[in-house]
Amino acid sequence: MSGARRIFTRPARLAVIAPYLWLVLFFLVPFGFVVKISLSQSAIAQPPYVPVFDLAAGWDALAAAFAALSLDNFRLLISDNLYVLSYLRSLTVAAVSTAILLLIGYPIAYAMARLPRGWQPFAMMLVIVPFWTSFLIRIYAWINILQHDGLLNQTLLALHLVSAPLVWLSTDTAMYIGIVYSYLPFMVLPLYATLAKLPQALNEAAADLGCSPRRAFWLVTFPLSLPGIGAGVLLCFIPIVGEFVIPDLLAGSASLMIGQTLWLEFFTNRDWPVASAIAVVLLGVLLLPLLIYERLQRRQLEGER
Amino acid sequence: MAARAARLSRFNLVSLTLGLAFLYLPIVIMVIYSFNDSRLVTVWGGWSLRWYRELLQDEAMLAAAWMSLKVALASATAAAVFGTLAAVALSRAGHFRGWTLFSGMLYAPLVMPEVITGLSLLLLFVALNAERGFWTVTIAHTTLTMCFVAVVVQSRLHALDRSVEEAAMDLGCGPVEAFLQATVPLIWPAIAAGWMLAFALSLDDLVIASFTTGPGSATLPIRIYSEIRLGVKPQINAVCTLIIAVVALAIVLASLASKLSRAKADSAAPM
Question: Any idea where the ABC transmembrane type-1 domain is (chain A) (predicted)?
C-alpha cells in the first residue's frame, strides 16, 4: 500500500506546477507591485505614479528608479490622523462584529449539531444558500427594510412601538446588521463542522459523572469547540477589517473604515502610491491573524490524518 | 439517534428558528417586492411583472449581465481545472518543497480583504500594460475562486478510500490512469460543486471586478452597485430575484449531482 502511495506522489507533484505558477504570477507577484508602488511618488500621468521601472532603458535607468523610491507615503500615513483613525475604526468594527457573530452563530451551530443526523445536511444547506446568493443583493434587501419608509419603520409604527419613523439607514447599527448578516455563514459553518464531530459519548460520560448539562457544556463541549471558534473568528475578522461595500452602503459618511479610505484614495483622489501604502500596512496588520489561521488549518489537517 | 433528537432543547430550537428567519426574511421580502406594481419600493400596489418587463429593456443592465455570465463561465472553468490540480497536489503529493508557500497562497485569498487582492492585481495589469476588460477580470476571478474549488475537492479527496486507486494499480493501471479511471469519476461531483461555487462567486464579486475591469465593460454587480448608490429602484428587486433564481437552480442541480454520485460511489466501493 505504501508502495502504491509512493508511486502516486510523482504525478501528483507534476499536478502542482500549473496552479503553483498561476498563484505566484497572480497572487504573490502582484503584492510585489503594491510594495513597489507604495514607495513611489504620485504623479499626474498615466500610470499616475513615478518612478516607473523601464526595463528596456537599461541598468542605469533602473538604478535611478530605485534611488527615487521613498518612504514618504508611509510617513504620511502616520502623520495624518485620518489614516490612523481609519485603521482603528476598522479594527474596532471588526472586533465588535466578530463578537456579535460568535454570540449569534454559536447557538445556531450548536442547535444544528444537535439535530437528528438525517436533518443535518439539510440544515447546513439552508445556512449555505444565502452565502451563495450575492452579498450585494442581501445588502440591498436590508436597504429596502431599513430605509426611512421601509418595512421596519412601517412595522414599528403599526405596532405603535414608536410614534415617528426612526433613522436606521446610514447609521452604525445598520452597518453592524449588514456585516453580521453577510458573515453569519462564515461563523456558523466552521463552528458546526467542529461541534458535529464531537462524540456524543463525551457528554453522556460527563452526565454519568454527575455533571449538569450546563456544566458539561462549559467543561467538555466548549473547550473542545475552540478550534472551530478560532477558525470562525478569523474567517470573519480578517475580511471585515478590509470591508468596503457594506459600510459604504449602510454606514454614515462620518467615519471611514480603512477599506473605504483605500478605495477613495485610489478611485477618487487617484493617488495610487498612498492607496498602495495603505494596503501594505493593512496587510502587515492582518499578517498575524493570517499566520495563526494557517497554523490552525495545518493542525486540523494533521489531526485528520 | 432518538437520544440525539431528544437533546434538541427549546433553546436550541428557538435559536435555530430565529437564525434561519434572520437569514431568509430579508431575501423573501425582496423577492415579494420585486412583483410590486408600485413605483415606490415600499408601498404595495398589487402583483405585477412590470419591473421584469422594464428590466428587459434596460440595455446597459443586459450588457452587464452578459459580461458577468461570460466571465463567470470562463473563470469557473479555469478555476475548476487549477483548483482540482491543486487539491490533488495537496492531498496526494506528500510534503514537497515549497508546500508551505503553496498552501499559504492557496488559503490566503479565502480570507484576504478583497480591496487588497483587487488593488494588487490591477497594479500588476497596469505594469504589464495589459488592456483591462474581459480577460483581466477573468484572470482575477480565476485566482480567487480556484482556492474555493481546491478546498471543496480536497475535502472529497480526503474522504475517499484510496483502496480503489490502489486496486486499479494492482490491476496494471499506471498512477495517472488509475487516477483518471478510478478517482476522477468519484470526485467528479465535488469538481462540479466547486465549479458552481466558483461560478456563483464570480457572478457575485464587486470589489475585485471594479479594480480589474476597464471602461465600458462593467459586470452586473458593478452596474447594480452604481444603481443602488443612485437611489433605490424597483428594477433592482427584479434583477436580484432573477439572480437568486439562477443560483437556487444551480444549488439544486449541484446537490442532486452530488447525491447521485454518492449513491453510485457507495454501491461501487462500500466504504
Answer: 87-293
Yes or no, beta carbons of A114 and B4 under 8 Å apart: yes
Flag whether the ipTM exceeds 0.85: no
A·B CB contacts under 8 A? 278
Q: Say if residue A248 is in the same domain as residue A208.
A: yes
B214 touches chain A (CB under 8 A): no
What's the structural domain count of chain A? Answer: 2
- Domain of A53, in residue numbers: 1-69
Calculate the CA dihedral of residues A101, A104, A106, A108 and round it to 10 degrees.
Answer: -130
Domain B59-256, second-level architecture: Orthogonal Bundle (1.10)
Average pLDDT over residues A94-102: 96
Query: Tens digit of pLDDT for each residue in A168-187?
Result: 888 889 999 999 999 998 89
Q: How confident is the model at residue A51 (pLDDT cuts 50, 70, 90)?
A: low
Residue A96 shares a structural domain with residue A201: yes
Positive or negative CA dihedral for B263, A12, B101, B76?
negative
pTM: 0.84
Scanning chain A, the segments in alpha helix (DSSP H) are: 2-15, 17-23, 29-38, 59-67, 72-79, 81-114, 120-132, 135-146, 151-158, 172-197, 200-208, 213-216, 222-224, 226-241, 245-250, 258-263, 272-304
